[in-house]
Design a protein that fits this description.
There is one protein chain. 28% of the residues lie in helices and 43% in strands. It has 159 residues and is of the alpha+beta class. The chain has a six-stranded antiparallel beta sheet. Strands 3-4-5 form a three-stranded antiparallel beta sheet. The protein is globular and about 50 Å long. It starts with a strand and ends with a helix.
Length: 159
């Protein structure tokens, strides 16, 4: 089961929410999510993270906004991490847009998890491009979530 929505909060503020149920325990989902060296094997949209998923660390994130093109968008972030549960960044990116990007793993019991990827894009040129970006983010995040699900379930059931 997966969901994806975007909401226009105001003229220059959009909220994005995606989630997916994964047939793997939270520790397995977290281990895939933080195994950034292997993103190239399964991740879509957010195709790479360089740096360690540790509270206060700096990471470099590669996004591939259009899978039909090789062009990557690379951004540097300082992340906040609650180990085993969530990580996020909240910084200004291109066009002065503030990006509050959040990754959260929730236990559902019975060896299942819910992965939530949400975002808010605020300010800067959001008033010009917010609707288009929000749709692109929902599609991209859902593709990433499906890849995470497939890889976590593969790892959970290969033992």
């Amino acid at each position: 089961m997966e969901n994806g929505t975007s909401e226009k909060v105001s003229f220059s503020h959009h909220r994005i929410h995606t989630d997916i149920v994964i047939d793997a325990p939270p520790d397995t989902v977290w281990s895939v999510l933080t195994d950034t060296a292997n993103y190239g094997n399964w991740a879509a949209f957010l195709v790479g993270i360089k740096g360690e998923i540790m509270d206060g660390s700096k990471i470099t994130v590669d996004f591939q906004l259009d899978p039909s093109k090789e062009k990557l968008t690379t951004l540097d972030h300082t992340i906040t991490v609650v180990d085993g549960e969530q990580f996020y960044w909240a910084e200004k990116g291109p066009g002065g847009i503030r990006d509050n990007h959040h990754f959260h793993v929730e236990p559902l019991g019975e060896g299942k998890s819910r992965f939530v990827q949400s975002d808010e894009i605020i300010g800067g040129i959001t008033f010009l491009m917010g609707g288009r970006l929000a749709k692109m983010y929902v599609d991209g995040y859902q593709a990433f979530n499906r890849g995470l699900k497939a890889e976590a379930e593969r790892r959970a059931h290969s033992d």
